[in-house]
Design brief:
The protein has 94 residues and is mainly alpha-helical. The chain folds into two domains: 1-55; 57-94. Helices cover 93% and strands 0% of the residues. The chain has helices spanning 2-54, 58-68, 71-93. It is rod-shaped, with a radius of gyration of 40 Å. It comes from Stomatobaculum longum. This is DUF4366 domain-containing protein. Keywords: Membrane, Transmembrane, Transmembrane helix.
């Protein structure tokens, strides 16, 4: 009878060890998954920082673009052409 109770205790001990191993395996899997996510986030952050460093600032680009193409100048330029043509025709008539 003592052997039977000893075997029962041994079985309980083995089963508790298996449960601990399963828990540790799931913890290891979770830790690995979180580590991979951390590495991906770090690489994405570095890539974004390099992208921001390499591309020109929007303010500088907008200023250059606005200087080259100003709507007011285009309208005024079109009006000047018509006035220049009228002046040229008037000079030709004189």
């Amino acid at each position: 009878m003592d052997n039977f109770s000893a075997l029962m205790k041994l079985d309980e001990l083995v089963s508790s060890m298996k449960k601990k191993e399963e828990k540790s395996k799931t913890r290891d899997a979770i830790v690995i998954a979180l580590a991979i996510l951390g590495v991906v986030a770090a690489v994405a952050g570095i890539a974004y920082a390099v992208y921001r460093f390499v591309t020109p600032a929007e303010d500088e680009f907008d200023d250059d673009f606005d200087d080259d193409f100003n709507d007011d100048e285009l309208i005024a330029f079109g009006d000047e052409d018509e006035e220049d043509e009228k002046d040229a025709k008037a000079e030709d008539k004189e």
